[in-house]
Specification:
Strand content: under 5%
Helix content: 55-70%
Number of strands: 4
Order of helices and strands: HHHHHHHHEHHHEHEEH
Oligomer: single chain
Strand order of the largest sheet: 1-2
Distance between the termini: 55 Å
Radius of gyration: 19 Å
Largest sheet: 2 strands, parallel
């Protein structure tokens, strides 16, 4: 195969892996099947090549849905407040600069590595579930990766798994930051937070190239998913049409582009209640 076709295949495969995740995402919300064991089985199988512990993701993602855009509670792209940012270690500030700037696409990798393998941060039945999922994917990696390297070499591991996996995380990071980050989308403290308002008006519908939406099972149609997680991915467009009929221009919509990502990564850095988002540049100017 000509070498110059490899990037095309990495992009295609990584995007298709994101589609694997979206089906597992439905399983995590119990909208894939009426049977609990089917959701758990399919979710674990589809998450295996991603080395993603199913139960830890499921539990933490459902927490995000329970506390969407609630200040200091939501665990999906929660922005740092200036006073918190000023008191953390320098290397943490540097890393936060990266994932809130042009390296936003590694944010999902950090989220995966830091939050989903520590079963001691869970309790009771959830701890056992998370431990099972984490050990399952680690066991899979311990078998699959050496076999892949033994049969295709280190370069085979890189081109057949690592680079498509990075593309997958590019889409994961991009989808999630675009879904919940805009200069005029507020994160509110609990006394002021309203669940219905947050789910309906705090998430964003974004149009991507149709081939991306097809391979990723319309996960970009995000507003109805927050209104009800019971809606499976194949019904999101129909639900979005219904929401548009009832709420019209109040539904947030945008188109994926470099200018959109530039707006988010240039401005949406730190957060305060007065002006919502503040850029690192404006924060430094106030010091």
């Amino acid at each position: 195969m000509p070498w110059f076709l490899l990037p095309v295949l990495w992009i295609f495969t990584g995007t298709a892996l994101t589609g694997f995740f979206v089906i597992g995402h439905d399983c995590g919300h119990r909208s894939f099947s009426n049977r609990l064991w089917v959701n758990d089985l399919v979710g674990h199988v589809l998450f295996l090549p991603l080395i993603y512990p199913f139960h830890s993701w499921r539990i933490q993602h459902n927490y995000h849905h329970t506390h969407t855009n609630k200040l200091e509670e939501d665990n999906a792209w929660q922005p740092f407040k200036p006073e918190f940012y000023s008191n953390i270690a320098g290397w943490k500030r540097g890393f936060y600069h990266l994932i809130r700037g042009r390296f936003w696409w590694i944010g999902s990798i950090a989220h995966w590595a830091l939050l989903h393998f520590n079963w001691n941060s869970f309790e009771g039945k959830q701890k056992s579930q998370v431990k099972f999922s984490a050990l399952l994917v680690l066991g899979f990696a311990a078998i699959a990766f050496p076999l892949l390297i033994a049969t295709t070499g280190v370069w085979g591991f890189v081109k057949f798994w690592l680079l498509p996996w990075i593309v997958y995380h590019f889409w994961m990071s991009t989808f999630t930051i675009v879904h919940h980050t805009a200069p005029d989308i507020p994160f509110l403290p609990e006394p002021e937070w309203d669940a219905a308002q947050a789910q309906l008006f705090g998430s964003v519908h974004c149009d991507y190239p149709r081939w991306v939406e097809f391979l990723c099972h319309d996960i970009n149609v995000h507003v109805p998913h927050h209104v009800s997680t019971a809606i499976p991915s194949y019904n999101l467009r129909l639900a979005h049409s219904s929401l548009k009929e009832n709420w019209g221009e109040q539904i947030r919509e945008c188109h994926f582009s470099w200018s959109l990502m530039k707006q988010i990564t240039d401005r949406c850095h730190l957060y305060n209640m007065d002006e919502y988002y503040q850029s690192f540049k404006d924060y430094r100017a106030q010091l």
